[in-house]
Design goal:
361 residues; mainly alpha; 3 domains; 16 helices
């Protein structure tokens, strides 16, 4: 018998080679996938940064110290350049720069001021070449790094204080943005773990991922609390309006000729208390609950409607204004519930009406 081993051995080596090739291709595909995941995370981080810059830039231009400090930290290159510049400034140069920035900010003609020589300070030509708007922003950024907050406010101070509504809106945006940043950071760590080459590196990433997941869970819990509080407050305020609309005695005492006479009966006093409660809850300063679900235009319409509420109106007119406000609260509850559903937060369904449950989807 003739045993020819050449073909079987050749087949074996070909099979082994093919398996190695498949393994290599698989590893290349995994590497490509990891690189794509990393690029996606980086793009998300960049988009988040750009969004935040757009959000706080109006505050920076108005002279908000905290927003100006934050702006300098959003760009790593800018942060590094600022830190190097601060490290190279002596104490005397520090004070000279502060004085120069204060004079620049108060100069009636800033372009002319830039042409003046300062023997103790060299002004970068790049700064001179910027547009006035860019120079003003850069001056605030440098000033915030060198000046205490009180000094900064005196030199660049905010032109006007933001309302409690605007503050609530800003805080809500910050909370939502911080949560998204935490989630992006978690995905970045998970992507890095996939690319880890040793078991030690994988274990280190696992610990970081576990810690980051705890932080994300905490941030989500805070975000859910914000949404739940908004729903509860809007629901309670809406109930006050319903109680007034559904009480014929209250409506009669508030409208027409009777409403123009100072209340002396218990019913009249209670009705006026209801109306005052509704009006007070709808002022711009107390509309923080609506800062996320409604637009600024909606808020102005609602505030305008509440300002028209008064005793002595016709019943038709009073009901119209109350229903305008009530519909706004309906939108608040609906939009908060949709946001909660989109983010995967669980709600106590037994506390929601059928209409509210349908609005979640």
């Amino acid at each position: 018998m003739n045993y020819n081993l050449s073909n079987p051995m050749s087949s074996f080596f070909n099979t082994a080679s093919n398996l190695q090739s498949l393994k290599s291709n698989s590893m290349n595909l995994q590497q490509q996938q990891n690189e794509m995941d990393a690029a996606k995370v980086q793009a998300e981080q960049q988009a988040l940064t750009q969004q935040r810059v757009s959000e706080i830039m109006p505050l920076v231009k108005s002279g908000d110290y905290d927003a100006t400090i934050e702006l300098a930290t959003l760009d790593p290159n800018m942060s590094e350049a600022i830190n190097k510049a601060k490290a190279n400034l002596s104490e005397g140069q520090d004070r000279e720069m502060i004085n120069w920035l204060t004079q620049y900010q108060s100069a009636p003609d800033k372009a002319a001021f830039l042409q003046q020589d300062n023997p103790n300070l060299t002004v970068d030509d790049n700064f001179r070449g910027m547009s006035e708007e860019q120079r003003d922003v850069m001056a605030r950024i440098v000033g915030a790094q060198l000046m205490p907050k009180e000094m900064f406010n005196a030199a660049f101070g905010k032109q006007e204080q933001i309302s409690p509504y605007e503050q609530a809106k800003l805080e809500g945006e910050n909370q939502d943005r911080d949560l998204r940043r935490q989630e992006i950071e978690l995905r970045r760590l998970e992507s890095e773990q996939k690319r880890a080459k040793t078991s030690q590196e994988q274990e280190a990433k696992s610990q970081q991922i576990e810690q980051k997941r705890k932080e994300v869970d905490e941030a989500k819990a805070q975000d859910k609390t914000r949404i739940d509080n908004g729903i509860n407050t809007a629901t309670q305020n809406k109930q006050v309006i319903d109680d007034l609309l559904n009480n014929d005695d209250y409506m009669s005492s508030l409208t027409g000729y009777t409403g123009r006479i100072p209340a002396v009966t218990t019913t009249g006093v209670e009705a006026e208390a209801y109306l005052d409660n509704i009006k007070n809850s709808m002022t711009i300063d107390n509309l923080g609950v609506m800062s996320g679900p409604l637009t600024d235009k909606d808020i102005q319409i609602i505030a305008s409607a509440s300002s028209r509420l008064r005793s002595g109106m016709s019943e038709t007119a009073l009901k119209k204004e109350l229903n305008t406000i009530k519909k706004a609260y309906d939108r608040v509850v609906s939009n908060y519930q949709k946001e909660s559903n989109r983010k995967g937060y669980k709600q106590e369904s037994e506390n929601l009406s059928d209409a509210q449950l349908l609005d979640m989807y």
